[in-house]
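By convention, the token line describes the chain's fold. To illustrate:
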Amino acid sequence: MPTGGISPLVILLWVLNVMFDTTGQLAFKAAAGDDRAGDGVARWKYMASRPWLWLGIGCYIFEFLVWIAFLSLIPLSEGVLLGSINIVAIMIAGRFLFAEKLTRLRVIGIALVTLGVAVVGFAE
């Protein structure tokens, strides 16, 4: 994705992909992490009655469509690497919304993934 020829549509699709994937993952975590859910089949019934599960599924449907459109515009090797930024967004959001720990190694990993995405994004 060269910086000179980058299309606004590619940027929009990339941002939408990150947003839908991150929101979907967070919604699934909220659905699965509800302590009132119980165990076994009762857990699945409870989750199915809550909006979080359906929000996650909806986000994944839209993410799939956006991802296909994104990949139709750039090479697969670049798209997959640029899609790695989702990991960073999800880890940071998980920290703020679910108080998940960001260890020193995870922060280093976030930095390396971000650096890798930047390199791929600005490579000519």
